[in-house]
Amino acid sequence: MGNRGAANLIVATTADLDAFREAMARLAATVHIVTTRSHGLRHGITMTAACSLSVDPMSMVLSIRQGSATHDAILASRRLCLNMLAPGDDALAMRFSGALGHRGEDRFAEGDWLCTSDAPPLLHSAAAALQCDLVEAHGFGTHSVLLCAVRHVHLGSGATALVYANRRYGAVQPSTAARN
């Protein structure tokens, strides 16, 4: 394998882009609301592009669209909370996605948020919430890849998370093989 930079990537055709979008729709992922506080304002956005990086040090990788208000606020504050949504939080996920027209502080009008002056907003009903510091940000295409150090872990009462796959929200159920 050679070391290829982003400049050497093959540009896909429209048909290939459609196939890629469809393939990504089939990729099941946990639904999160990432929040931050910058210049006295709360910001948040729904995302599925988050995964663990390491347990030593505890860290996460996130991908967020450049130019979004939340992206810019995270870069400014260098702090965020990754709120892992619980099953049943579909409406909250839609609210923070912007699909319903909610922007800025209006997104926080729903949900039970712990908001302090020194930390990003934390959702009380989250399956888990990770308070993180931004360590590095790298631009790639339309997004930034964020490397985050986990500072605090808050576990909710439920052990399952909301997932998104095939353009629908749901929850993971044990497979038939796992039950036998």
What does this protein structure show overall?
With 180 residues, this protein is of the alpha+beta class. The protein has a single domain (16-171), classed as Pnp Oxidase, Chain A, CATH 2.30.110. It has helices spanning 14-25, 69-77, 90-97, 176-179; strands at residues 29-30, 32-38, 41-47, 50-55, 58-65, 79-84, 113-116, 119-123, 128-140, 143-155, 162-165, 168-171. The strands form three sheets. The protein has a seven-stranded antiparallel beta sheet. The protein has a three-stranded antiparallel beta sheet with strand order 1-11-12, with no helix packed on it. A two-stranded antiparallel ribbon has the order 7-8. The longest helix is centred in the N-terminal third of the chain and has 12 residues, at 14-25. It starts with 13 loop residues before the first helix and ends with a helix. 28% of the residues are buried.
Give short descriptive properties of this protein:
180 residues; alpha+beta; 44% strand; 3-stranded antiparallel β-sheet; 4 helices; Pnp Oxidase, Chain A
- Proportion of residues in β-strands: 35-45%
Average pLDDT, to the nearest integer? Answer: 90
Q: What is the overall silhouette?
A: globular
Sheet with most strands: strand arrangement: 3-2-6-9-10-5-4
Number of domains: 1
Oligomeric organization of the protein chains: single chain
Second CATH tier, the architecture: Roll
Class in CATH?
Mainly Beta
